[in-house]
Amino acid sequence: MKYCDAIKCLRKKLLLSQTEFAEKMGVAFVTVNRWENGNNVPTFKYKRKLAPLFKENGIEVGEWKNIDSLKWKNEKI
What CDD domains does the annotation carry (predicted)? Predict the structure, then answer.
């Protein structure tokens, strides 16, 4: 599943509006709207926040299969 479809699916599974989902994620409504429409990709910070939510809700995002192993360049292991 593409990230834009996965985000929309997750939000709907959580029974949240785009505004409510944006508040929970700590982003603006327009950001969630752009993610869902495929106009923007979540930054690494938000991919890390979304990954466990996808896993908990049984949503597989093919584009992010190894998100748990990703690290920032300066992130200490």
Answer: HTH_XRE
